[in-house]
Design a protein that fits this description.
It is a single chain. The chain has 571 residues and is an alpha/beta fold. Helices cover 45% and strands 22% of the residues. The chain has three domains: 2-136, Beta-Lactamase; 147-303, Reverse transcriptase/Diguanylate cyclase domain (Alpha-Beta Plaits, 2-Layer Sandwich); 328-565, TIM Barrel (Alpha-Beta Barrel). The chain has an eight-stranded mixed β-barrel, surrounded by four helices. Strands 2-1-5-4-3 form a five-stranded antiparallel sheet. Strand 1 (42-48) and strand 2 (51-57) form a beta hairpin. The longest helix has 23 residues, at 377-399. It is elongated and about 120 Å long.
Length: 571
């Protein structure tokens, strides 16, 4: 009969536990019998005037160490105020999460409270507890495994993000910083010594980094050869720089791998919590951005908001530039190069110009570095070569034959490294029926120094086509006289930094005179850039310079304007 009443009045609940009867209007013996049917700890408690009293408890409740006397029960001691509020409230049932014991051997319970009004003098409720300690420990173990780097035992990227998010939500943002440490030359270790040696190096690096940090700082392996540090700041940003020095000192001693001693340097980028708007991932990205700058500068870099803004602007330029190249929105302008002895135009230098869709005219100094960094310099260079060949063909048609004017096209160092230049140039010449002797190809000193053997092969192939080869911006790079002697260079272009203001600077005159003497000794012609006055042009001519280029003669012009400058009918 009792069981029928209990089953009939069951109340739906998320826990798979029997719910209390319509009322507890049965004796203590019946209460105890009902509770003993439950496989989980359960008790019926009564709130009397002097406090709580157990009306009944079952065997699992006693075995769980929850007591048999209300005054001595940890359940009543720790949850008494919550139980009282529930009994005195209008709630019918509720669920409570409860941790019982210390952190080491803590047990976790879901506590279900249920009550119904009855005719008893004192209110009562039924308490059932489900132990889900094992479930939580398994979940914690899986979470920890997912957040741990299997090689080093450090937190991985996910674990680092969790720690960082906790720091952002619980600490003052100004009190912490993120350091990203990227190992230099690690890929060479993997390539030369194998993956096992690389793993061994990472483990050793992790140990050294850990030793360089304080106990309260968090070290993580972000992936590959990149480590992250969540750093507590006691005395402001200076703490981060100090720790960075300690990290570099820890890695200064060579690492022993097999029979080799390997020195591993690192690049460090720092992002301050004070510069973050609350997103942990943004803080990591800021530090990674600073690392990229550190690799270029060779020193520890701290993230600066304005630098990031510049980078975002460059990404925007890259996107628009790619679209402009694909849609044919770029233009070539042509600046004349004149014979200093006669003043006659002998050639034009082709210079890329770009006006964005918004009507903004960007200087090559703005978009050429972006093109080189992004790799867009290759399609841009191919386009420039095609346009230059097309222009020569158009001018020849307009003159009724060979107009005897050359066009100079710049070849980027990156383009020389990654593109097949001879095939590209030959293709452009053949498509437009232009002879190679009508081209002057300008290379920078840095391009030659990067890979002299490969560049030499490229230059000889271009010479075989009849092209003139010029070294651009001579004197500003890494000039090696051996290169000048061995490579088939026809012309040296003297950088405008030596030409501008030359007449008032004895040192500049001496440098220009030395370059001219060197070119003469090697049988090369010369072009001076940045000529703006007749006096300067006459002086350079007297010193033996062959050609001149600058605003004295003309700015860079559109194709038709350049043709008109020659005194010929429009193309």
């Amino acid at each position: 009969m009792v069981f029928a009443r209990t089953k009939k009045s069951r109340v739906a609940a998320p826990l798979p536990l029997p719910q209390p009867a319509d009322s507890f209007a049965f004796g203590p013996g019946a209460s105890a019998m009902m509770l003993d049917m439950l496989p989980v700890p359960a008790a019926i408690i009564e709130l009397q005037e002097h406090g709580f009293v157990f009306d009944a408890v079952n065997r699992p409740f006693r075995l769980a160490g929850l007591g048999t006397v209300a005054g001595e029960s940890p359940l009543i001691r720790l949850l008494g105020p919550r139980l009282r509020r529930f009994i005195e409230s209008s709630e019918i049932q509720c669920e409570i999460s409860w941790q019982f014991g210390d952190e080491v051997d803590a047990r976790h319970f879901r506590v279900m409270l249920a009550k119904r009004a009855d005719r008893r003098a004192f209110p009562r409720c039924m308490v059932t507890l489900v132990d889900h300690t094992s479930e939580l420990r398994t979940e914690y173990s899986l979470r920890r495994e997912m957040a741990t780097d299997s090689l080093t035992g450090l937190p991985n990227r996910a674990g680092f993000s969790d720690a960082l998010e906790h720091a952002i939500t619980t600490e003052n943002a100004r009190d912490f910083a993120v350091l990203v440490v990227n190992l230099d030359r690690f890929s060479r270790v993997n390539a030369c010594m194998g993956g096992l040696a690389g793993d061994e190096l990472l483990i050793t690096v992790a140990r050294r980094l850990k030793g360089a940090l304080r106990s309260r700082d968090t070290l993580a392996r972000m992936g590959g050869d990149e480590f992250g540090v969540l750093l507590t700041l006691d005395e402001g940003p200076g703490d981060a720089l100090h720790v960075a020095k300690r990290i570099q000192a820890a890695l200064a001693n060579p690492f022993r791998l097999s029979d080799f001693e390997i020195r591993v340097d690192c690049s460090i980028g720092i992002a301050l919590g004070a510069d973050n708007d609350g997103d942990p991932e943004d803080l990591v990205r800021n530090a990674q951005f600073a690392v990229k700058r550190a690799k270029k500068s060779g020193r520890t870099e701290m993230y600066q908001t304005h630098t990031f803004d510049i980078a975002r602007e460059q990404f925007g330029i890259e996107t628009e530039l790619r679209r402009a190249i694909e849609n044919g929105q770029m233009t070539l302008c042509y600046q004349p190069i004149c014979d200093l002895a006669t003043g006659k135009i002998t050639s034009f230098e082709a210079l890329a110009r770009w006006t964005t869709e918004d009507g903004v005219r960007l200087s090559p100094n703005d978009f050429i570095p972006v093109a080189e960094e992004s790799g867009l310099i290759i399609p841009l260079g191919r386009w420039a070569m095609e346009e230059a060949a097309q222009t020569i063909a158009a001018w020849d048609r307009a003159s009724g034959g060979d107009c005897d004017i050359k066009v100079a096209v710049n070849l980027s160092a990156i383009q020389l490294q990654r593109d097949h230049i001879p095939a590209m140039v030959r293709g452009a010449l053949e498509r437009h029926g232009v002879d190679g002797k009508r081209l002057t190809l300008e290379l920078t000193e840095s391009a030659i120094v990067t890979d002299p053997d490969r560049i030499a092969q490229t230059m000889h192939a271009l010479k075989d086509m009849g092209a003139t080869l010029a070294m651009d911006d001579f004197g500003t790079g890494y000039s090696n006289l051996a290169y000048l002697q061995k490579l088939p260079i026809d012309l040296l272009k003297i950088d405008r930094s030596f030409v501008s203001g030359m007449l008032a600077d004895r040192d500049k005159i001496a440098i220009v005179r030395a370059i001219l003497s060197l070119a003469q000794a090697l049988g090369m012609q010369t072009t001076a850039e940045g000529i703006e006055t007749n006096e300067l042009a006459q002086t350079l001519a007297a010193l033996g310079c062959t050609y001149g280029q600058g605003f004295l003669y003309s700015r860079a012009l559109e194709r038709d304007e350049a043709w008109t400058l020659l005194g010929e009918p429009k193309a």
